[in-house]
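In the design runs reported in the main text, the only information available to the sequence generator was the tokenized backbone. The following block is the verbatim input for one such run; it is reproduced so that readers can re-run the procedure and compare outputs position by position.
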């Protein structure tokens, strides 16, 4: 299957810069997700790969060939949209076989291919049904089979699960990944759902305002965010402004308290930094005195097996995940001491402004 390369890709709409010099190489057989909030440029990038739009500048390469000005039907691309876009007057098998019919494949070959694909997506028994007789999840499976029917070199999926309910979405995302691995097809997946991207991708490219903030395997995106934006957008993160107190000992000053953080070693004394700590790594215990990072539990958020406790230390709020059984021992109003492993925290420089990025919660 083809590699995909985007070289200095830029797309401008009037005064709006949708993509600003994207550089990206996707390996053959790789599953890569574009992740980011609405308006970050991820769908624009996908449309440029597909050929539905032309870049203002830059190049698109598929399998080493410059396809920047090649029409979509000659790129060897299969695409699945958010809206299923099935032909309502065709059965499932008619929809899946449409591209093969246009290509004038022999009828017997076409029939075998359609049957194989309907079996692959678990719809062999629904071949004669029309779209209105299928559930949303089944329609999207038909759309996926139709995209695969022409044996594309690259598969593109644009928010394919966003119109489905939560249970079906979970099932179908696993199916998409299973099929992608089985076929070994190079795949680009667009989503604003971080859980979706992290669970099925080989690598994730996090976009913001037309730029790639970070591209890395899911574990690295989650565990070692490269920028404040990634730290805020992916998962829940305590982002605390701190100062390097002792770079030799690896110590920060946080809310007037010295805290051991391995990542502080080698930094400049007095440097303003952003301390990044995941809630699941934060430990809480009842405070018997005022030593350490001591604060007050101000609220609980029940999340099933864990409960997220919100703790204020001075003017700063922390989040900590504890077992729901243990949360009852730390009620609202309780004084608690907060801690985290010194090696678990990340640090980012705040830059001259010291400003933290703001992410709309609706775009997570």
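Verbatim output:
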């Amino acid at each position: 299957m083809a590699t995909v390369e985007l070289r200095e890709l830029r797309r401008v709409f009037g005064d709006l810069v949708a993509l600003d010099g994207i550089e990206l190489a996707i390996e053959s057989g790789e599953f890569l997700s574009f992740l980011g909030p609405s308006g970050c440029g991820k769908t624009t990038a996908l449309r440029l790969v597909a050929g539905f739009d032309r870049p203002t500048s830059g190049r698109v390469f598929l399998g080493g060939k410059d396809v920047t000005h090649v029409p979509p039907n000659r790129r060897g691309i299969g695409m699945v949209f958010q809206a299923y876009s099935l032909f309502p007057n065709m059965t499932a098998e008619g929809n899946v076989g449409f591209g093969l019919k246009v290509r004038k494949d022999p009828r017997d070959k076409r029939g075998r291919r359609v049957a194989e694909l309907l079996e692959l997506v678990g719809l062999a028994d629904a071949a004669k049904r029309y779209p209105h007789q299928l559930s949303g999840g089944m329609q999207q499976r038909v759309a996926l089979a139709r995209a695969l029917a022409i044996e594309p070199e690259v598969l593109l999926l644009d928010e394919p699960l966003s119109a489905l309910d939560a249970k079906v979405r979970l099932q179908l995302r696993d199916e998409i990944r299973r099929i992608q691995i089985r076929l070994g097809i190079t795949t680009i997946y667009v989503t604003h759902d971080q859980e979706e991207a992290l669970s099925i991708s080989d690598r994730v490219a996090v976009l913001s305002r037309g730029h790639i903030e970070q591209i890395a395997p899911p574990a690295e995106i989650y565990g070692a965010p490269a920028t404040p934006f990634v730290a805020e957008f992916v998962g829940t993160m305590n982002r605390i402004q701190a100062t390097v107190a002792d770079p030799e000992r690896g110590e920060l000053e946080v809310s007037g308290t010295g805290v051991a953080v391995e990542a502080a070693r080698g930094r400049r004394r007095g440097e303003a930094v952003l301390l990044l700590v995941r809630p699941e790594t934060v430990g809480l215990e009842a405070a018997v005195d005022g030593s350490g990072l001591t604060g007050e539990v101000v609220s609980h958020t029940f999340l099933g097996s864990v409960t997220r406790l919100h703790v204020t230390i001075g003017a700063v709020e922390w989040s900590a995940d504890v077992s729901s059984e243990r949360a009852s021992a730390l009620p609202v109003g309780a004084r608690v001491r907060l801690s985290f492993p010194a090696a678990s925290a990340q640090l980012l420089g705040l830059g001259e402004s010291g400003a933290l990025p703001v992410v709309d919660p609706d775009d997570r």
